[in-house]
Amino acid sequence: MKITLQIISFFLIFAGLLPLIKRDYWTFRVFDYPRMQKLTLTLTIIFIWLSVFYNQLEIFDLAIVSALVILAMYLFWQIFPFTPFSKKMIKDAKGNDPLAIKVFVSNVYQYNTDFKKTTSLIEKENPDVFLLVETDQKWADAIEIFKEEYPYHIEKPLDNTYGMLFYSKLPIKKEQLLYLIDDEIPSLELDLELRDGNLIKIYAIHPTPPVPGENTTSTERDAEILIVGKKAKAYGKPCLVIGDLNDVGWSYTSELFLKISGLLDPRRGRGMFSTFHAKYFFLRWPLDHIFVSKEFTLRNITVHKGIGSDHFPISTSLVLNPANLNEEKSANATEKKEAKEKISDGKEA
């Protein structure tokens, strides 16, 4: 049993340290995702070591346990910002502001044909805008029932799991359908007019994940995320970045994105709000995001019930309040250079 425990311990240490190697290949990047799972397993193995073998620990065993304790501390430090015990990155909205905007985002899973679950949830939640990704023509047809209530819409159904449908009750003043990295993977950039006449910009993206069968590296994903981050920074006015980013909020790329863009993550200081995988409770992490600029405060953020997809929908209610005191991150010269190199690598991939 001790040998088995040693093997499991070595695997956990390996899995915990691998994301520290800044390589884009999927075998490195995929271990970014299950931080909470790794922490839970690490604490469990430490408990077994100390409870079962507490009087049989040799120097080699003590070294393993010490390494596991250090790993657990590191993983907890990584996860802590995504707990209610950490400082909120976005301040709470005060009062019941009638000018709040509710944003709903869902990866519906292209092969999911239970359209009613999604349409019923949208009807119930009644967002001001919603983005659906992985939408083919069947999904576009099913969502047409909302065209009267949501008179402003941008539709790009595709059969390659990268289709997008964006519907809005609020006027879309300007729109662009862009292909930032791949000619088959669209993204949206649009100006939305709020009820008080203010304009905000919304970037909607769905880059490829670094997994076999999709993309063996994270190069293109990272580049697309960072391109949008630079766009948001250059815009310098209220904006949102929404979509299935195929990356967790605690990854190095997400941290770099926040610094490059100056945007904020509503999860930080509130919880993980995991949206994937909907079918496996023990393998869940936050892949779908709504990042916001510093001018917003937050009324709420919600992960909704399953709709037959492998993702849960997520929504948030935001209030535009330029006078608030949200603190954005900033990138140093080294980080700006790294972001530039990642973007260049992605465009060449």
UniProtKB/TrEMBL annotation:
GO terms for molecular function: catalytic activity. Residues 108-311 form the Endonuclease/exonuclease/phosphatase domain. Gene3D superfamilies: Endonuclease/exonuclease/phosphatase (3.60.10.10). It comes from the Bacteria. The chain crosses the membrane at residues 39-55, 62-80. Keywords: Membrane, Transmembrane, Transmembrane helix. It holds the Pfam family Exo_endo_phos. SUPFAM superfamilies: DNase I-like (SSF56219). InterPro entries: Endo/exonu/phosph_ase_sf, Endo/exonuclease/phosphatase. Residues 329-349 are annotated as: Disordered. This is Endonuclease/exonuclease/phosphatase domain-containing protein. It comes from Rhodonellum psychrophilum GCM71 = DSM 17998.
